Amino acid sequence: MSWQENYQLWQDAELTPDMKAELVALAGDQDRLVEAFTRPMEFGTAGMRGVMQPGINAMNIYTVRQATEGLALFMDQLGATQKAAGVAISYDSRYHSQEFAYAAAGVLGAHGIKSYVFDSLRPTPELSFTVRHLQTYAGIMITASHNPKQYNGYKIYGPDGGQMPPEEVNQIVAYIEKVTDLFSVKALTQPELRAADLMQLIGEDIDQAYLAKLATVTIRPELIQKVANELSLVYTPLHGTGKMLYDRVFRTAGLTKVAVVPEQAVLDPEFATTPFPNPEFPQTFELAEKLGKETKADLLIATDPDADRLGAAVRQPDGNYHLLTGNQIAALMVNYILAAKQATNQLPADGCIVKSIVSSEFATKVAANYGVETRNVLTGFKYIGEQIEQMETTGKGHFLFGFEESYGYLVKSFVRDKDAMQASVLLAEVAAYYREQGKTMYDGLQELFAKFGYFQEKTVSFDFPGISGQETMANVMKEFRANPVTEVAGVAVTSTEDYQAQTTTAADGTVEKLQLPTADVLKYYLADDTWIAVRPSGTEPKIKLYFGVVDESIAASQAKIEKYQAALSPRLK
Q1: Where is the Alpha-D-phosphohexomutase C-terminal domain (predicted)?
Q2: Roughly what angle, to the nearest 10 degrees, separates helices 124-134 and 420-436?
């Protein structure tokens, strides 16, 4: 159908009053109408995410029902035991999140599938835990993570608590595509669901189980006890789900001096104090820094609205704060975990950390210093979850830590997604480790730089908005493959990994097979130990350019990145 025909269908449909009003408001904006009604929202391995508005390419109650109908039809084909296991559902603080969660439960109930729905918002990692704890077949998380207020999203989790693997997602997508009439999807009301025992509310019962597991994350709790009266933290949930548990999480770990940023502990779908609630942005920490200076905090911690990502800033000698990158946080955590386990005779001979292919080699060097293997996987925490499952199933390898450069970390495998609650506890323990030595985490970072090299990374995003964005992005990637990168700013490329073609090509033309799954990613290794990657985002209309360098000083490393960025950026414009 044309966008005009799709638009007419929505005009003729019996929409909810608020949706009808929003559709009327769109009437004079043809660009937005074309964007909203030309083609359906893409449902990928990370689910779907989009602006909340009417349309087939948007987040609204009708597209949520359509996606859930696809999941329900998929589950209808499963064995009776798997279908009876049901689906766990959680949601964040965004507009319509609770409404979407209950809409999903209603559609599942119409298929006789029971849902376990949180009584109020909860973090994404707790949803992952819940799938495993209740042994449901699947999980649904309504969240747009760190996106601005206009967005919402829908993620599906599999039986292991990780995001649903690609094979199952492809089958679900096939069922979603069969749901051509969004307005005819049957959904039971909440009273109907409860009367038929097809929806069960959950909350404190799961919280207690999750908190009990979080209490096992600390490795040397005596360190925290020693400095508990001295170690000062500032925490901000950025108006999101971290507020629900942070106080109990920190108290359980023995941390007594934790101040919360009061303005950002309000569950506000407007994200009034931080329009981009992303813990990698300096602006996100402005209020935390102000409170940190008042309380002389050693460490500032921010979690994004669904509490799966964590950002941090550490106190410097002059009293100001240094914002850590995701890769630096990972290196500090890996060093502490391995040192602490070694000191307490808990470091296994087959220990292993897992990271994404676009994350720093900094943590890899640290791990190697302790004789610990690093495994690289494609971007997406589900791939880290797959490695954990493989280790636990085969008995080959012992999971110690997983991370992505985009501020996602996992310490223990009772969750199979990035978990900012776990990371908060561990990072506080890292701060205690340095505090006991009379040092700060900033000092600790400088020590790692001096020992392993001055690693620096940077990610640059190029936006491709609008209905033609996907096609333009595909053409950019085609151009990179048609005209291979053989040198960057005069430095030779020694090998190229093409994850779409599944090949590694050396400078002499030798080709070897890659062992990771297919993905639209190119990664270049340069003669000076630099790596560069080009990758379209899986959730946003962006192509990301990643740089990872190492040199003898921070200044030299930063100069390298600037040089390489200037050389390659024109190819993405």
Answers
A1: 508-559
A2: 110
- How far is residue 259's CA from residue 392's CA, in Å, rounded to a whole number? 38
Scanning the structure block, which residue is given the tokens 């309000």? 266
Question: What's the rounded Cα separation, in Å, for the pair 21 and 65?
Answer: 20
First to last CA, the chain: 32
User: Residues 451-486: pLDDT tens digits?
Assistant: 999 999 999 999 998 778 888 999 999 999 999 999
Name residues whose C-beta falls within 8 Å of residue 406's C-beta, 6 or more positions apart in sequence: 280, 309, 326, 459
Cβ partners under 8 Å of residue 285, min gap 6: 236, 279, 300, 302, 311, 313, 321, 323
Helix (H) or strand (E) holding 247: helix 246-252
DSSP string, 205-256: HHHHHHHHHHTT--S-HHHHHHHTTT--EEEE-TTSGGGGTHHHHHHHTT--
Q: Give per-residue pLDDT as tens, 377-399.
A: 999 899 999 999 999 999 999 99
Q: Which residue has the tokens 């100001």?
A: 320
**Cβ contacts of 229 within 8 Å, gap of 6 or more:** 256, 257
Give the tens place of pLDDT for each residue, 61-73: 999 999 999 999 9
- Amino acid letter, 325: T
Tokens representing residue 530 in the block: 């630099």
339-373 per-residue burial string, b: 16 or more CB within 10 A, e: under 16? bbbeeeeebeeebbbbbbbbbbbbbbbbbeebebe
- On whether the CB atoms of residues 234 and 431 are closer than 8 A, the answer is no
Catalytic annotation, pick one of 93, 145, 356, 359: 145
Whether residue 360 lies in the annotated active site: no
Distance, in Å, from the CA atom of 410 to the CA atom of 404, rounded to the nearest integer, reads 9
The amino acid that residue 537 corresponds to is: S
Q: What is residue 453's predicted lDDT score, i.e. its pLDDT?
A: 97
Q: How far is CA 147 from CA 102, 153, 275, in A?
A: 22, 10, 9
Rounded to whole angstroms, the Cα distance separating 369 from 453 reads 13
Angle, helices 3-12/30-37, rounded to nearest 10 degrees = 90
- Counted residue by residue, the chain has a size of 573
Which residues, in sequence order, are CB contacts of 81 under 8 Å at separation 6+? none
CA-CA distance, 320 to 282, in Å (whole number)?
Answer: 13
Closest CA to 496 of 521, 460, 519: 521
451 torsion bin: left (phi>0), alpha (psi -120 to 50), beta (else):
alpha
Do the beta carbons of residue 323 and residue 403 sit within 8 Å?
no
In this structure, how many other beta carbons lie within 10 angstroms of the beta carbon of residue 528?
14
Nearest Cα to Cα of residue 545 among 358, 282, 355, 330 = 358
Is residue 192 classed exposed, middle or buried when 0-12, 13-18 and 19+ CB atoms within 10 A define those classes? middle
